[in-house]
Specification:
The complex is a heterodimer of chains A (507) and B (370). By secondary structure, chain A is α/β, with parallel strands linked by helices. Chain A is built from 18 helices and 20 strands. The longest helix of chain A has 17 residues. Chain B has two domains: 97 residues, no CATH class; 245 residues, Orthogonal Bundle (ABC transporter involved in vitamin B12 uptake, BtuC). The chains are: A alpha/beta (507), B mainly alpha (370).
């Protein structure tokens, strides 16, 4: 295997309003290697690859291909340099055949598509790399795994030598993943280079030659596969710079408010992703759940909130069992949810701050008026009051929330979710993408809810945040709780172990 | 330096008035050219063709609004448009695209005819009769919309296709009745039912030129305005319309909202059908609606789903239809040319709306660092 870099990215920086998505990132891709980009959601992996692929323009930094400096301005431009990317969302035309999709966008097939030639070449490629797909099939009839194979074949057809795979296994079954891994091995053995983006440790360890870990838009380090284990990677991903710069308020915890017994929940792929999970949170207590993203955190939160149906198990709020899939009942019972998707779930972008504040069916309780005669004036003054209390900076209560910054948007969500004296709060990545100031605000709000006596379930990726807020830490792995630790940085090794799948009693 | 077209961040407020006005002016201008060519062909010289065009325009624009008969005709055309558009607005606010206004209008007309001629033929009081026919008309429209509503709510079918297809079913059903079992034996073979009895006719004034349907439409509009602005339903329907996931997250029962939205939407259109029968037609006829249900889509949309604005826009569209009738009668313009004109107006209005989302920007070219 030759050892010169086919691709080099030097000192790449890119910021979006309020977020430094990439901060001085450098990356080297050698010929014939699988290079993994590992990091939590939001660590900057996808942004970096979008810069390489010409979708975004870097604020600073340079890209070299075969030691020559290049400036890539569009995906078709990237293809010219032999860079191909398989995005998380496929770009295929469902009503076209596989062969038609492969030649789609290519300029050199002339006016009439020589279907026979294209089909036989696809067949050749698909056999050579072990990516079985029928070139005559129409895409809409194919499974997600097959569609992904088409995307890869498309790149091979155009002769791309650098292939970027963005979270390729997220949509695959284990068998399909194995097949993909074999194809990747074959590709690199023939001289292609692959950048493999993932946040799953096992996969990265299984497939990569080298691993670059990103955290918060920065490179933590690049390591050889042989020289690192699972535990080391976890440590790199979550970081050691855990500080406790503020005392937590000491609160007398009361009775158990949220009780979960033997809960089982399936994810969107119909796989069990929360398994037999039981937990209990007392009033005045924050339980932090640590874990690598995609280990059932989201499904757990959605099942408690009633957005996702549970397969079995029992969820009890203050002594009352919650029925299947009934969100309104939970809101009335005093359950609040701060979801990680601020823009897609927690707010209506085209409605005003006021509408968003009263979005839940609690308007009538908040402003004491009948649903047959809303009191505009009272709603307005209540909205202004909340805007002041949560220091939401907005031109007025009538401004549409899509004009607000991430931090202010989150304050709108907090104002709505916390102002009604909830008994239980589920906070899912409550500070993702926020700047320091907004983060502090979120912390303070959650801690003051705890002092009031709320039971809080905190699901966060950053251990820092978990240590900062929680009274107990539970570690989740593949939908199961591996064990509990006190919220103390001295337990970070143990937490790392459990995040990688070890049970607490194992050591 | 070059000029680039870019999307506006915000559409300025004045655009809501100015853009439609300019759009209609453009449509008139284009139509003027077509008319001019047409008249040159008919009259043989340019100057008299020009005079004829100007005259025709004056007639078309002033007749529907500037005299009693024109104005009454405009109101008559406005009523069915307004009812269907008001109904559509109820569903469109939730981004549920009911294209079936025409079919719901037909069903309302059909069932109210059934009521007037058969079911309630022994009812003698006009008030009771009118109330009964309004109720069955609205119920028929609601039932017709319930089909796509249940299909959407439980089988996730696309309401656009289903409502559109049901239009044809409703129209052909009416045709079957008026050509067949309900055909008036004294009707000289015309495809229509027997006339409504007197007690099934809406009170009207000015030698029957003006019926009270306009006031019923006004009442519905005011009621809808209140619902949209002041009730929990109106508030929640905005959330459903803006972000379905957020609606679920807020504890709104999206399935119930979908069903109710379509059903109420159909009920209002069905009521429009009943009013049209009781107020204007007084009998069910083949093709009694020249596509009110489709024009109403444009009306609802131009009025930005605001009920009071819908009244205004349907009044103006009513005037346009009356002006066109006038051209057809007095200037012997072929029907096809009238259709071209209506098409042009719609085309320019929609085009203007689309264009107003963009603006021209002058940008300095930045040299690319290769």
């Amino acid at each position: 295997m030759e050892d010169f870099p086919v691709l080099e990215m030097k000192h790449i920086s890119k910021s979006f309003p309020g977020v430094m998505a990439n901060d001085d990132i450098s990356l080297q891709l050698k010929k014939g290697e699988v290079h993994a980009l590992l990091g939590e959601n939001g660590a900057g992996k996808t942004t970096l690859m979008n810069i390489l692929f010409g979708i975004y323009h870097a604020d600073r930094g340079e890209v070299f291909i075969n030691n020559g400096k290049v400036s890539i301005t569009s995906p078709s431009h990237a293809l010219k340099y032999g860079i191909g990317m398989v995005q998380q969302h496929f770009t295929l035309v469902p009503s076209f055949t596989v062969a038609e999709n492969v030649v789609l966008g290519l300029k050199d097939f002339g006016f009439v598509i020589k279907t026979k030639t294209v089909e036989s070449k696809i067949k050749e490629l698909s056999e050579a790399y072990g990516l079985p797909v029928n070139p005559r099939a129409r895409v809409w009839t194919l499974s997600v795994g097959e569609r992904q194979r088409i995307e890869i074949l498309k790149l091979l057809y155009t002769g791309a030598g650098i292939i970027i795979l963005d979270e390729p296994t997220a949509v695959l079954t284990p068998q399909e993943s194995d097949m993909l891994f074999k194809a990747i091995r074959k590709l690199v053995s023939e001289g292609s280079s692959v950048i493999f983006i993932s946040h799953k440790l096992d996969e990265v360890l299984a497939i990569s030659d080298r691993i670059t870990v990103l955290r918060g838009g920065k490179v933590v380090g690049t390591v050889e596969r042989e020289k690192i284990d699972r535990r080391g990677l976890v440590r790199m991903m979550v970081g050691r710079d855990v500080l406790l710069d503020q005392e937590k308020p000491v609160v007398e915890t009361g009775r158990a408010i949220l009780k979960i017994e033997n809960l089982n929940v399936k994810n969107d792929k119909d796989l069990m992703s929360v398994r037999d999970l039981s937990l209990e949170i007392r009033s005045g207590e924050i339980l932090g759940i640590a874990g690598v993203a995609g280990n059932g955190q989201r499904e757990l939160a959605e099942a408690i909130y009633g957005l996702r149906k549970k397969v079995s198990g029992r969820i009890e709020l203050d002594g009352h069992e919650l029925r299947q899939g009934n969100v309104a009942e939970r809101i009335r019972a005093g359950l609040s949810f701060i979801p990680q998707d601020r823009k897609t779930m927690a707010t209506c972008p085209n409605l005003s701050v006021m509408s968003n504040l009263f979005m839940k069916n609690s308007i009538c309780e908040l402003v004491h008026c009948s649903p047959w005669k809303l009191d505009g004036r009272r709603m307005h003054s209540k909205a202004d009051e909340l805007i002041g209390e949560f220091s939401i900076s907005t031109p007025s209560a009538k401004t549409e929330v899509r004009y607000l910054s991430g931090g202010n948007l989150q304050k709108v969500v907090l104002a709505r979710e916390l102002s009604n004296e909830p008994k239980v709060i589920i906070a899912e990545h409550p500070t993702r993408g926020l700047d320091i100031g907004a983060m502090e605000f979120v912390y303070k709000s959650l801690l003051s809810q705890k002092e009031r006596g709320a039971a809080i379930l905190l699901l966060a990726g950053e251990l820092y945040e978990i240590f900062r807020l929680s009274d107990r830490v539970a570690v989740i792995y593949e939908g199961q709780i591996m064990g509990y630790t006190p919220p103390d940085p001295s337990y970070i090794e143990e937490i790392g172990f459990m995040m990688a799948g070890a049970r607490q009693e194992d050591h | 330096m070059k000029i680039r077209i870019e999307k506006r961040l915000e559409i300025p407020r004045y655009a809501g008035i100015i853009v439609p006005v300019i759009s209609v002016a453009v449509a008139l201008l284009i139509m003027g050219i077509i008319l001019l060519v047409f008249f040159v062909g008919r009259l043989g010289n340019l100057s008299s063709a020009f005079r004829e065009t100007v005259e025709a325009y004056k007639e078309m624009l002033t007749w529907p609004f500037a005299n009693r008969y024109g104005l009454f005709s405009t109101f008559m055309r406005m009523v069915p448009l307004a009812f269907v558009a008001l109904g559509l607005s109820f569903a469109y606010r939730m981004k549920i695209w009911n294209i079936g206004g025409e079919g719901q209008l037909y069903m309302g007309a059909m069932v109210s005819t059934w009521g007037a001629l058969f079911l309630f033929k022994d009812v003698k009081s006009p008030l009771i009769m009118i109330v009964l026919l309004s109720i069955v008309g609205a119920a028929a429209g609601a039932a017709w919309a319930l089909i796509p509503a249940l299909m959407k709510a439980f089988a996730r079918t696309d309401e656009i296709v289903v409502t559109l297809m049901l239009n044809y079913v409703a129209i052909f059903w009416v045709d079957y009745l008026v050509y067949g079992p309900w055909k008036d034996p004294k009707g000289y073979g015309f495809p229509g039912t027997a006339p409504f009895p007197d007690q099934a006719r809406l009170p009207s004034f000015f030698d029957d030129e003006f019926h009270i349907g306009v006031f019923i439409a006004l009442a519905v509009a005011v009621l809808l305005q209140y619902i949209y602005r002041k009730t929990g339903w109106g508030f929640n329907s905005q959330i459903v319309g803006d972000n379905l996931l957020a609606a679920r997250y807020s504890g709104i029962n999206v399935r119930n909202y979908t069903i109710i939205a379509l059903v109420v939407s159909g009920a209002i259109a069905g009521l429009g059908g009943a009013v049209q029968m009781m107020g204007v037609q007084h009998r069910l006829q083949h093709g009694f609606s020249p596509g009110y249900g489709y024009t109403a889509i444009i009306v609802a949309w131009l009025a930005k789903l605001n009920p009071l604005a819908i009244l205004l826009v349907s009044f103006l569209f009513g005037g346009l239809l009356v002006g066109n009738d006038q051209l057809q009668m007095f200037y012997k313009l072929p029907m096809a040319l009238i259709s071209v004109f209506q098409g042009l107006v719609l085309f320019c209005l929609l085009g203007g709306e689309a264009v107003s989302k963009y603006r021209l920007a002058i940008v300095k070219e930045v040299p690319e660092n290769e």
